[in-house]
Amino acid sequence: MEIVAPHAGDTWRAVYTVRFEDAVYVLHAFQKKSKTGTATPKRELDLIRQRLADAERDYRERQN
User: Fold this and answer.
1) H or E element, residue 4
2) What distance in Å separates the CA atoms of residue 15 and residue 10, rounded to the nearest whole number?
3) For the residues 42-59, what does the mean pLDDT come to?
4) In the prediction, which pLDDT does 34 show?
Protein backbone atom coordinates (compact mmCIF):
# COMPACT_ATOMS: atom_id res chain seq x y z
CA MET A 1 0.00 0.00 0.00
CA GLU A 2 1.25 3.47 -0.74
CA ILE A 3 0.07 6.71 0.83
CA VAL A 4 0.81 9.91 -1.08
CA ALA A 5 0.37 13.22 0.74
CA PRO A 6 1.07 16.68 -0.65
CA HIS A 7 2.48 19.13 1.90
CA ALA A 8 3.56 22.72 1.28
CA GLY A 9 4.14 22.09 -2.43
CA ASP A 10 6.11 18.86 -1.85
CA THR A 11 4.92 15.29 -2.24
CA TRP A 12 5.64 12.73 0.46
CA ARG A 13 5.09 8.99 0.17
CA ALA A 14 4.87 6.31 2.83
CA VAL A 15 5.02 2.71 1.73
CA TYR A 16 4.17 -0.06 4.18
CA THR A 17 2.72 -3.52 4.40
CA VAL A 18 -0.13 -4.91 6.45
CA ARG A 19 0.47 -8.50 5.40
CA PHE A 20 0.61 -9.72 8.97
CA GLU A 21 -2.32 -10.47 11.20
CA ASP A 22 -1.01 -8.64 14.28
CA ALA A 23 1.74 -6.34 13.01
CA VAL A 24 2.34 -3.42 10.68
CA TYR A 25 5.84 -2.74 9.43
CA VAL A 26 6.68 0.69 8.03
CA LEU A 27 9.11 -0.06 5.23
CA HIS A 28 9.98 3.36 3.87
CA ALA A 29 8.91 6.98 3.72
CA PHE A 30 10.45 9.55 1.42
CA GLN A 31 9.97 12.88 -0.28
CA LYS A 32 9.32 12.59 -3.99
CA LYS A 33 11.58 15.16 -5.62
CA SER A 34 11.05 14.50 -9.32
CA LYS A 35 9.13 17.27 -11.02
CA THR A 36 8.14 15.01 -13.92
CA GLY A 37 6.30 11.73 -13.81
CA THR A 38 4.54 10.02 -10.94
CA ALA A 39 6.49 6.78 -10.85
CA THR A 40 8.43 5.84 -7.73
CA PRO A 41 12.17 5.77 -8.53
CA LYS A 42 13.72 2.30 -9.02
CA ARG A 43 16.23 2.70 -6.19
CA GLU A 44 13.36 3.48 -3.80
CA LEU A 45 11.44 0.41 -5.02
CA ASP A 46 14.52 -1.78 -4.59
CA LEU A 47 14.96 -0.55 -1.01
CA ILE A 48 11.27 -1.20 -0.25
CA ARG A 49 11.50 -4.75 -1.66
CA GLN A 50 14.55 -5.50 0.49
CA ARG A 51 12.88 -4.12 3.60
CA LEU A 52 9.75 -6.14 2.86
CA ALA A 53 11.84 -9.32 2.73
CA ASP A 54 13.49 -8.32 6.02
CA ALA A 55 10.10 -7.62 7.64
CA GLU A 56 8.69 -10.97 6.49
CA ARG A 57 11.73 -12.78 7.90
CA ASP A 58 11.50 -10.83 11.20
CA TYR A 59 7.80 -11.59 11.55
CA ARG A 60 8.32 -15.32 10.96
CA GLU A 61 11.11 -15.40 13.56
CA ARG A 62 8.91 -13.64 16.13
CA GLN A 63 6.16 -16.25 15.62
CA ASN A 64 8.46 -19.06 16.78
Assistant:
1) strand 2-7
2) 17
3) 91
4) 67
